[in-house]
Structures are given as C-alpha cells and as structure tokens.
Fold this protein.
Amino acid sequence: MIPMKPNSDLSVPLNPSWNPWPHGLAAFLSLFACAVAGMGIFATRHNQDLVSPDYYEQEIRYQEQIDRVTRTQALTDPVTVALSPDGRTLELRLPVAAQGTVQLYRPAEARLDREFPLALDAQGRQRLDLNPLKPGLWRARVQWQQGGQEFFRAANVILPER
C-alpha cells in the first residue's frame, strides 16, 4: 500500500510513479556523444586529397595559367583532346613542333594520376592507351611549349566500364 499525505482532500502518493524524462535525457545525450565521437573518427580516417600536392602554390601562379589558356585559344590550328569512340584511347592533336607533357589525373584518387611525355607523329597526333586506367572521371591536361611560349589545354574524360 502507498502511504498518503495526512489531512488531504486529494490522495496523492508520497512516492510518485516512475518518471522517464531523466532516463530519456541521459540516453539522448549518450547517443549524441557517440555520434560526435563517430563523426570525429570518420573525419580523421577519411583521405581528403587535394588536386595536387602543391595546390596552394599553383593558385598563386594562376595568372600564368590564364595566359597559357588564352594563347591556346588564339591558335589558328585547333588543339583537340578527345576520347576514341571505343573509349580505349585518348587522341591528341597539337602543333607538330610542340614539346611537353600530358597529365591524366583522377580527382577522386590522387594516387592514380599518370603523366606522359608528348610524342607527336609527323601530323601532330598522339594516342595514349587508357586500358590500364580505372573507369570513371579523369581530367586530361596537356601543357606544351612552342616557339618560346607555353600553352595549355584541358578536357574531361569519362572512361566507360570494361
């Protein structure tokens, strides 16, 4: 039997029934603390690659890059960077006297980046075999020198599943 207050019109028990609020609040705060700790662990273990290791230095020299792109757009012969219809080769067309590099980088995984020297044929064309590369988005960057000036052309390449 539950003891009652003496001389009372209402029968109010001295020991109230179980109150869920303190337990619910403690459970909520515990779950919140676990979620914050889990997010902290995830954030420290997640690999966040920049596009390149010297990204900030490249940002400072960006005006030079703008000049390269402007000179490339002013060329009379078009510069093309295109994926073959079968998706297995990258076809480049540049001025014959060009000397430089072709960089293929994968924005999602910096460790998969590749760089190739330009080796143009007599018509100013080069083909790169893309079979060893993983399917998905790649960015082809072609940088070359010709006549004492630097030029640049970039193109997105999406390699299909094999």
